[in-house]
Specification:
Layout lengths: L2 E12 L2 E12 L3 E5 L6 H8 L7 E6 L2 E2 L5 H6 L2 E3 L12 H9 L5 H5 L7 H11 L15 H14 L4 E5 L7 H16 L4 E5 L3 H7 L2 E6 L2 E6 L1 H5 L2 H8 L3
Helix pairs in contact: 3-5, 3-6, 5-6
Amino acid sequence: MDALLEVREVSKTFGGVVANRAISISVPRGGVVGLIGPNGSGKTTLFSSIVGFHTVDSGRIAFEGRDVTRLRVDAIARLGLIRTFQQSRVYRGMDCMRNMLVSAQPVRDSFGAMFQRFPPGLGERTEALLDFVGLHAKRHLRAGTLSFGQQKLLEFAMALMREPKLLLLDEPTAGINPTLINALVDRLHRANTELGITLLVIEHNMRVIMDLADYVYCLAHGELLAAGAPREVQNDRRVIDAYLGAH
């Protein structure tokens, strides 16, 4: 399949600590790829390198065939490669509608966001996406009054406002109650199938990964441990040992 993202032999160290060592992964256009591994395995560091937050020590990252290894975060985002975070990053003092509008044309600080002007025509898209994630009825409520799970849904909708080609989601279901987990997984499926957005997902909830991903990579101790179909990786003895702390 056509590879939307190619990560080749990427390594990243912090001082004497190796966070990633010669990691290679590929994300096909239109696919849903999972990235799993125990805490400290290097998953979030790899995400940060892909979106330009960290400069890698060696290796190459290509998006749509273009080398983006040394590009800045904002330049990579403009290409359609967008990332969400494990902890929700919403403007808690603003209502959902304004959070959405701000996300369409990001500013550097919350003070600037309060006074930003927006082009006409964004309102309909904002309401449609809030409806898509199930928050339309709460569109005029301040984001800070939403539950943590609803804030994660809002952040997902905010990411969709930027019309991503590839969306990197870091622990999208962490801290969310089971009912909202099902709702979020359903929205992720629909974003992939209906909106055509390719997904790369870090997730600890194995049930979610089994349901969501077409292909899974597992990291351990900063290295690629296993890769394959979800069930295949889940039953890999090396993966089981890594999660159980076996030696």
